[in-house]
Every structure is written in C-alpha cells, then in structure tokens.
Amino acid sequence: MCVACAIPTEVRAICVDCTTSPTKRMRARSFGSPVTSTLIGLCVLLYVAEWLLPVYQWFAFYPPSAYFEPWRFLTTAFLHSGLMHLAFNMLALYWMGQYLEPLMGAMRYIGLYVLSALGGTTFVLAWVLVSPTSFNTVTVGASGAVFGLFGAIFVLQKAVGADTRSILVLLGINLVYGFLVPGISWQGHVGGLLVGVVVAWLLVQTDRPRPGVTEKKQNLQAAGVLGAVAVALLAAQSGIYSLLISWYA
Questions:
Q1: How far apart are CA 238 and CA 234, in angstroms?
Q2: Burial class (CB in 10 A: 0-12, 13-18, 19+), 169
Q3: What is the pLDDT of residues 184-207, one digit of tens each?
C-alpha cells in the first residue's frame, strides 16, 4: 500500500478497501441508527408533553427570552407546532439518519445535528438585524437540523464523486417551499443548511487518510472541529445580541 491508501489505526494499518468492505457495511447496518431513533423519540415525547406541560414557554426559541435562557437555541429543535409538522420532519430525519449515522459514526453525527440546529436558530436571530419585527416571533421545529443533514449528504456525495443531482433537486424544492408558504421559518432552513455544509466539509478534510494519522487522532481532530464550530456559533449569537442592545439602548 502507498501512504495515501493506508489508514492507520492504533494497532495496524488497513487499506481503503477494508474500511469500505461489505463486512464493515453489514456491521454498521446491524447496529441500526440508535442516535436517530433517540432524536425522533425525544421529539415525539415533547410533542405529547405539550398537552400536559408549558413546554413552549420553557424550550421554544423566542429571541427576547433566549438572551437569558440560551438553551432555547437548541431545545426548540425538539418542539413542533402540529402533528403534520412533526411527521414530515421526523420522516426526513429517519430517511437521512439511516444513511448518515452509520456512515459518520455517532459522535460526528450528533455534532452535525446539534450544530445544524444551532445554525438554524442563530440565522433566525441574525435575521432580526434585517427585519426587527421578527424579534418577537417564536420559532420551533427540527427543520434547521434536518436541512443540515441534507447539506451533509450533498458534501459527502460530492467528496466521493457521486451524482448529486437528486439531493440538489430535493433541497431546491424544500427551500422554495419554505419561501412560498407563510408561517415557515426559511431562515432556520438556510442557517441549518449552511452550517451542515460547513461542518460536513470540515469533517471530510479531517478524516482524509494521511500518513501517521491514526483513527484515534482523527476522532480527536473531528471533536476539535465540532467544538470550534460551536464556539463560533455562540460568539455569533453573543455578537448579534450586543448589536441589538446597542441599537435599542
């Protein structure tokens, strides 16, 4: 093997063919998609809880409240405004999660999902700078995170030279739908998509086989990338709030 084809692990080096062998793919499928199932379960659980508890008041993204309760930037991705809203998002999450989770691994997949969700709400907040009236709008739904998964699939397909036309058509239809239908947070869609593309691209770069870089080191680098994007999003949120405070002070 040349150094470009050798993928080091902690005990030995394996070739690219071994990492993509039918045996490995079968093993990945046998474990299923527990993270995706957990995410869907949490969304369904909170949807049911909405009938009994003031879940919206606690967890929905509302820009004035999120300044003092920053967990809303993420928790709102587990809330939905109706049964159809929940069903469509969960169906999309299931379809993409079945493909992405075994391929990326739990840590990268969770990071991608969480950061895409944060990207969606961060862009919703940023839009207040353009349209101040949106400051008092409540936003809920997993759409931002789901669009981040769409973006990741595009990046991964592009990285291996696969045909990306189908995912681009699907993305285009859903983006246009969000722009045309009132009451849909297209800002969350765009923000989640952009962050999903960036995160997936960075992970592809860190996971490329390189001489002397073991699987353990790749995992540490991937964790560093996810942490850096999270810090960048938190800094963006803080900066946007600082601008808003200076404008209305």
A1: 6
A2: exposed
A3: 889 999 999 999 999 999 999 998
How far separated are the first and last CA of the chain, in Å rounded? 64
More confident residue, 246 or 116: 116
For residue 8, give the 3-state DSSP assignment: strand
Q: What is the pLDDT of residues 74-105, one digit of tens each?
A: 999 999 988 999 999 999 999 999 999 999 99
Q: Say yes or no to pLDDT of 1 above 90.
A: no
- Cα dist. 96→69, 143, 170, 199 in Å? 30, 13, 12, 16
Q: Is 195 exposed, middle or buried (0-12, 13-18, 19+ CB in 10 A)?
A: buried
The H or E element that residue 15 is part of is strand 13-15
Distance between CA atoms of residues 144 and 194, nearest Å? 10
**How does 216-226 read in b/e, with b if 16+ C-beta sit within 10 Å?**
eebeebbeebb
Segment 207-214 mean pLDDT = 82
**Annotated active-site residue in 80, 189, 238, 246:** 189
Token pair, residue 234, equals 């938190």
Global pTM reads 0.86
Kindly name the residue from 143, 166, 185, 246 that is annotated as catalytic: 143
Active site residue 246: no
Q: pLDDT tens digits, residue range 143-162?
A: 999 999 999 999 999 998 88
85 included as an active-site residue: no
Q: Which residue from 118, 136, 126, 74 is spatially nearest to 243, judged by alpha carbons?
A: 126
Cβ-contact 124, 191 below 8 angstroms: yes
Instruction: Locate 38 and state its tokens.
Output: 């957990």
